[in-house]
Amino acid sequence: MSVPTINRRQFLTSAGAAVALTALPTQAETQASLPSVILTVFFWLKDPTSQSDKEQLIAGLKELAAIPQVKSLHVGVPASTQERDVIDSSYQVSEMMIFESVEAQNQYQVHPLHVKFVENYAHLWERVVVYDSVTAG
To answer: With a threshold of 0.70, does the pTM exceed it?
Structure first.
């Protein structure tokens, strides 16, 4: 049985590809590195036409980023995307927070800055819908 010969260039190309593949994270490693809890909240204002109320709520939400358990915070408003039956853009403000664990999210709920946020801004909203999710395994 003869062993095929390859030149140096072919060897280096093959070896480089093999090394690159070993550097790619496995699905398990990728899942393990994902955040455990994502909190998504939608706010409907009592006065949906009030730009001032919207700006106040947005400013208050951005202050929540100072809470240590909050790993990431996104504050948004409905996007001007194409209308589709599955899109609900009736809310005025949204937030998405990422936490490392359910325990971290529980600590956030009772953190003084979060409690103060609710006390200071609850008068602005008529309805709030919260979706908590954990990374699927």
So the answer is: yes
**CATH code where residue 57 lies:** 3.30.70.100
Q: What are phi and psi of 46, to 5 degrees?
A: -60, -40
Using alpha carbons only, give the angle 108, 89, 75 rounded to the nearest 5 degrees: 35
Domain membership flag for residue 73: yes
What is the chain's pLDDT, residue by residue, as a tens digit (137 residues)?
565 566 666 655 665 555 555 555 555 555 556 558 999 999 999 999 999 999 999 999 999 999 999 999 999 999 999 989 999 999 999 999 999 999 999 999 999 999 999 999 999 999 999 999 998 87
Domain span at 62: 30-80+90-134
Maximum distance among all alpha carbons in the chain?
83
Q: Which residues contact 31 (CB under 8 A, 6 or more apart)?
A: 135, 137
Residue 5 within a domain: no
The reply to whether 85 falls in a domain is no
Quote the CA–CA distance of 33 and 23 in Å, as a whole number.
Answer: 15
